[in-house]
Every structure is written in C-alpha cells, then in structure tokens.
Structure prediction request, 406 residues.
Amino acid sequence: MFLKKRKLTYLPVYKAEHWFRHRGVWISVIWGKEENDHRYEVKEQLTLKIFTTNPGFVRILLQDAKRVYGPDDDDMVYICSPNSYNEYWQVSSSRRKRPLESIILEPEIKDVVLDDAKDFLENEKWYLDRGIPYRRGYLLYGVPGSGKTSLIHLLAGELNLHIYVIPLAKKGLDDSSLSNLMAELPKRCIALMKDIDAAFKGSGKCLGIAGSEEPEDDENDKNKDKDKVDPEPSSGEGCILFATTNRLAALDDALCRPGRMDVHVEFQNASKWQAKKLFGCFFPSTSKFLGDEDDKVAGAVPKHWQPKATSRFATVPLTDEEAEQYAEQFSEVIPERMFSIATLQGLLLSHKNKPWDAIEASKVWVKQQLEKHEASAKEEGQKGQKQKEEEQKKTEGKCKRDCHQR
Ligand SMILES: Nc1ncnc2c1ncn2[C@@H]1O[C@H](COP(=O)(O)OP(=O)(O)OP(=O)(O)O)[C@@H](O)[C@H]1O
Prediction:
C-alpha cells in the first residue's frame, strides 16, 4: 500500500558505474561531483555513456526523461535567480500558473498590459525594421499588496515566459556580474526588478544618466558600481522588463522615461468592484464552483454536492443569486480604495467557510479600522498644531529679544 502511493526512485552509488537499457540501447551512468573554484559550491554531475550509432537518441532519451520525471511545463511558471556567486541563472522556484480570473484588476489594466506585451512579442520585425531597440519596459507602481507581482506572474503564465528576478540589492552583485547575467538572459523572457526605488536609491542620479551624486557613506560606495546599472541594458533584446515600486515619487524621471519604462501602470487600494469580485472568488455559487452548466441554468444545488467543513469554499451551497447578493453586501461594507486587496484577502481567509460570517466580521473590522484611522489622524493633527504653536512661540521670543536689543 505504501509502495502504491510513492513513486520509486533510483539513486546510483556515488562514483560507481551502473548500466541500464533504454529502448534497447545500453547506457552507463556515473554520479559524481565536479570540483569548483569555490570551496563551498559543488556541482553535481551525471555522466552518461550511450552505446548507439543513432545521434538522435540523446534527444529521445531527454524527452522520455522529461515526460516521466519533469514537471509539466505547460502548467508552471519558472522563477530564475542568479546562483550564490552571481555567475549564472538557475531555476529557484516554480509556481502553478494563475487563472486569468484570479487576478482582480480592472480590464483597462489587466487586458491593456497583456495585449501590449503580446503585441510586443509578435512584432520583433517591426522593431528591427525601424532600428528601434527590441525591448519593452513596464513600471508597475502603487500601494503594497495591490497585485503588481501577481499580474507579472499571470503574464508569465499567459505568455509562457520564465521570470528572471534581478536582485539589485543582493550582496556581491557588482556591475560586471550583473552585466554578464543580463547578457545571459534568454531572448524571450520576463526580467523583474522588484522594489526598484530601494535598489536605485532615489536615483537616475546614481545611474550615470542624470549627473553624478557623490555617495554618502561606505555602504553606498560599495554599491556604486551596481547603482550605475542601466535598466535599459544593451543586452536583453526581446526581453520584457518589469520594475515595481511602492514609491513612484522616489524615482528619478530619467529612470522612468520611455525606452526604459515604456508603460506606467498605477495600482491602487481595492475598489468596491474589486472587493465584490474577491468575495466571489472566496464564495462562488455552487454551479460556478462545480463548473456545471446544467446546474447554473437550474440555479439548483446538485445532489452530489457535499459541503465540507474544511472546504476553501462556503460550507453551504449557494445559488447564483445568493452568491451575487452576499458579494454585493460585502462590497457595500468595504470603503472605496481604502484597503489593499491583500488585506481584504487576509480578512476573508479568516472567515472562509461562511459568507455571512465573513460579512458580519468585515463590518466590525472596518469599523475598528476607521476608528484607528480617525485616532491617528487626530494625533497627527494635534502633533502638527503643537509644532506650530512651538514655532510661533520661538518666533515671538526671537522678536521680543530683537526689539529689546534695539
Ligand atoms: N488584484 C489582485 N487580485 C487578486 N489577488 C490579489 C490582488 N492584489 C493582491 N492580491 C493578493 O495579495 C497578495 C499580495 O499580492 P502581490 O504580491 O501581487 O502585491 P504587490 O502589489 O506586488 O505587493 P508589494 O508592492 O508589497 O510587492 C497575493 O496573495 C495576491 O494573491
């Protein structure tokens, strides 16, 4: 029973030669480790000797291996990052593709970015014919937790591209290793620079594109070379560059100019429309959840629907009308553009079984948040008033002293 559940795997003995036959061809395999200049990094190595006169056999073997053991490429988005010594790219993680509807953004954001990126990928010749560098930069800016990273993952899935994360703030990533890594980017890919404001520290000034500002301390000095990196690299042809930031104002205009960042997209806190859609994702109607057209038409609860206490969805079945009504009620509770989608997602996650509980809890939560906002605004106001009074006192004191001296 145990064996039935787990896939058997074979591991060759270290540095010993093993033989097996695949599709009638004898193959020897040795598992070893490659010595490396870096003491702490050892690359594993698998040496295969294939005894065949057919040069195409290697391709067949790789395809077979991928089919049996490899992940299903069509279903995954791969995220690559530099290895520990910033010498080459490696797959650091993979994620299942997100369905288009799971990202809740107004169509003028989601569709526009998606269509623009598709158009770019389909029109290499157009760029080449006109001598325009074949790359496209997108700057996604706005409040945290509003879907910037999620949109990039969605696009990677839709366009079948890997994501190469450029860790600008990573220790040891100097100008030359970064240039090498940029040169190693594949022709069609998404290059991602997250929180670009932190990496470029307020600056086209440090980019060598808008004058040169002296570094303030040693730490800046260490990063000097890296800060000169231009997000419009000479390499990276055919690559889609995404940069994200929560602080647009901290970025230099030169960094954001077309050619570097061609499309700017603002992300805001959740609108009522988004709140409603998000609620719909958590509490879909039974027919939507089961995807059964007949049920949808009948608006009835199918007999085989067995609500589970542990389900991510409602413990009770919902008709289309009920699901719509609950979602509408939730959106009425949530103030327009006040909370991020990530915050609302967290709120709903703690009440994911009963839609009415979620709505009631949201009412209480929103009230508390509004009171908190009001209290902190009042405090800020009082601080400001106090500061003003103190400044006024100081000015009056200075005035009196001046008059007395005269
Ligand atoms: N518009 C959205 N639609 C669906 N889910 C969202 C949306 N915005 C945020 N989320 C959810 O909130 C979480 C954080 O989202 P994400 O990382 O995309 O935000 P972000 O804008 O990139 O944040 P940051 O600026 O802090 O990096 C994720 O779990 C994501 O699923």
Summary: DSSP finds 16 helices and ten strands in the chain.
